[in-house]
Amino acid sequence: MKINKSPKSSMDAKWFYENPDTLSPAPESIPKSVGELIDPKYNLFIGGKFVAPHSKKYFETINPSNGKKLSSIALADEVDVDNAVQSAKKGFKVWQNFSPSERSKYLYSLARIIQRNSRQLAIIETLDNGKPIRETRDIDIPLAARHFYHHAGWATCWQESFPNYTALGVIGQIIPWNFPLLMLSWKIAPALAAGNTVVLKPAEFTPLTALYFAKLLEQINFPKGVINIITGDGSTGSYLVNHNEVAKIAFTGSTEVGKKIITATSATHKKLSMELGGKSAFIVFDSASLDDAIEGVVDGIYFNQGQVCCAGSRLILQENIYDQFIQKLKIRMSKLVIGDPMDKAVDMGAINSPQQLSKITEMISKGKSEGAKIWNPKWACPKDGYWYPPTLVENATPSNILVREEIFGPVLVAIKFRTPQEAIQIANNTPFGLAASIWTEQVQLGYEIAKKLLAGTIWWNCTNQFDASAPFGGFKESGFGREGGRIGMFEYLIPIKKKFKTSAIHNPKKIKSNSSTSIDQTIKQFIGGKEVRPDGGMSVSVKNFDGKIIGEVPLGNRKDIRNAVEAARNNHESWKNTTSFNRMQLLMFLAERLNEREIEISEKLSLMTGRSLKSTQLETKKAIERLMYWGGRADKLTGEIESTNSSQIVQTFRESIGVIGLTMPNEFPFLSFISRIAPAICYGNSIVVIPSEKYPLSVSTFIEIIRAGDIPAGVIQIVFGKKMELAQVLAQHADIDGINFYGTEEESFTIRKLSAETVKRVTVNFGNEVNWFDDSILHGERIQHEFCEPKTLWIPYGVGIS
Amino acid sequence: MFTNLETNLLSKIKVNTPAVRQRLATMFTRRAIKQGSQIAYYIKAIESIDLTTLQADDTETNVRRLCEKAINPVNPKFLNQLGFDKKIKVGAVCVYERMIPYAKEVLINSEIPIAAVSTDFPAGQTSLDNRLSQIEHAVKLGANEIDVVINRELLLTNQYKKLFDEIKEMKKSCGNTHMKVILGTGQLGTLETVWRGSEVAMQAGADFIKTSTGFEQINATFSVGLTMIRAIRNFYERTGKKIGFKPAGGIKTAADSLKWLTLIKEELGDEWLNPKLFRIGASTLLADIERQLQHFATGGYGSNRYNPIS
Question: Domain of B141: which CATH number?
Fold first, then answer.
């Protein structure tokens, strides 16, 4: 029985008694005594103090829930960026002079200032971003503090995990607008823990918490130049990316911009980590607890208005529960409350910017025109500011834009599946691979799906869980590198360089070639377990060290590469699922077979390179040793359990990267060949190898052995030909997941550039020579890193009535 | 009431306990009941209280006092100050069978129902005949509502058919008298068992399902509450029948009462927010809510010395 349409005041108890469906507002407030939280104008934070921008330009940041201006923000130009980098360079000397435990104390102090100012930071974040105060208060800010705590620890103990590693120097970091302070902590904490200094650029739309954080740094006298925060737009980011004294770029943002950064930095030695877009699957089986899964959907796609890179935007539902689940979901969506993000009782706030809002709106109308059915709750959104209601999309075909592309809004696309196999197929049918959520009460099903999904994070019966100790990052076009945990530290370290020249141990003029020792054998391409003729039907002659023709190898072309990649892809699924013990046996047996033919291989090497038999025998022996090493390592350290902050088992598996292309050096052609392929196979990758162009013949014995041996067809492809010609085809091949390239600096740049479009995992040597006899650089974790993709699986546990 | 137990449904019941905890972790931070709504919801909470005394030393004196309090639960001065001119009363008075006549004398013109605990409350460990005759006796004495306890052995050992039959017999003994079925959730171990017990009770004809007797080691937890509420919601989606819910035991603070109302509001809906479908079994909760209302009425924090005892 409704008497009045609205209450006399927010205290009108009688009215609210009669209208229990409406709740009084519960606005967050800040005591007057705290003063203004947001300055009218902010400068750049360089060298420990705020300085006016050289550009003299400022731009506005607004409150997206009402469109009103919050503050004026400095726009950093090229000179400002350079000033910040120079400051970070100076800061690097200071920071490196501190002991690890002193750095740890400073990181701890950052955790503490965030905790002490948590309410102010939460309010500023909500005003600037538009997300509900409940989220900033309970999720963003506590997780940011947690990240600094975790890395305060790493500052003193990473050296145990990564001996012979060191800091990179100045790190350029570019973060997005969806979790502004949290992303700041994800970037700054590990960089500083490793001993680097940073220039961080917050997102154009959400700079305020970073600037408030900078003010706090000023207050606690944080060492100057260690953290520099510069604001600006895309141009600022671009200056930072292109600055030649920045050692690494760490980027979180869209795949589109990520590709631009990879391309822009390709002709440099910059290390990169990319946390890019997603189109994450949220799979519900009929064996799930449906009411619990419904809440998972809410936390998966309506959290932060769906503006989350790992949002569960594709609801993949088993056919037999589809109707029931959709019905439950619509009821649940109708109960969501959207409104003033400063109200403590709203589920959803405002869309971050007018640009983002129109992007969502345009994509929805495109999806609709492609036949999708759109459903929204009946209630209306607020008028001022930028809003989009929770949205459910049905009847979208696999080609619909709403199924294929990242929307970054509260839009959920429902898709039906029939069997677990089909669920995996649908979930993996995307260029992205950031995260996935699976819902089933069946243990055997859950693990099977978790292992088969191509995504960096898998949440089983939960979603959007984060912790500083759990690595986070993507497969495929969702990027590379991980943030958080032990693996995350790797991104901010490099091996201490050892200068090395092959000529120091390589002396080719020891023997004379002899006309009677020519090699005459028919070598073919090795693809899919078979020796096949090259597509072009041509061979090239191979000369030895003093120019004498000693044999012929095929001249491969792009079609040979195409066939090789196809063979590798077709057999990859079964190869990656073989047990590590199986791979161990195969590698060790391979070593045994090579051992039997050690003399033959050594003689061939000697003939090709002109090195003494004594020298080539050392090479062959070392190669066999190395093969045994990687065989032995196949079942060691293949994952870890992370220490997160709740009742969950969080485990990180080391999975294969997938199909990898490798090119081989001319130096120590057999040892280098074995040293690269052994770890690749050890971790379940399928490979396409381009052998040394100059000395390809030593591989022929190897082909004979694997052809006769137990290595399954498709695991190793060997394509002879012109290295750069073939490597470029590999780099541009969309079905290649990783490239391991060896060549000159210029060639390395080219390969980095060509690999950008499909966001491959790329390792290049930049023309640096490697001491192939040095175990300290060719064994262990750093090599594992090049051939593994970490996958982190979250499984909450618990039973009982409380 | 179902003629036969739908057993195939019971095997499909699934509850993911960590997910339930995750939902509850944000449930009460997603909905802040403040200002006018806070007062309104406190009054709704009072109207949902089954004001209870279940002590071995209950006598006519304290039972009468409790019933007086049930009729006048809040100092009228404070209600007036809050602009609340409506007369309010609690949901019911809940007593042992022997106390029914005393309660009846006080409550005769109040329209407040008398609920009696029965079936060898709280353990339920006597013969079915004995337990059924207790129900019949309470009904004869004039109880309007009967709170029965289930035979926990039958639920813990998966004898659902027998449990269903026993509860049906109890319903038959109740006749037209309202029946609340107490699961004794503190002794059930898992949330799935709680849901299965709820489902059997609802199929067997329970008008309400109730968490605890107040005598188990663990009382009404929010996990249990959410599970039973979802059992009610799924039963409603399937049958169109609305079953009531009563958390009981250990609910002592005004803040907790708001949480229970939030749980109902969010997972069942506003139509459950009335004494016909929601009750809170409590003895000391009322005093804390009164203090909060005094706070709203006067602007200063309240004291029990201004509120008549029960």
Answer: 3.20.20.70
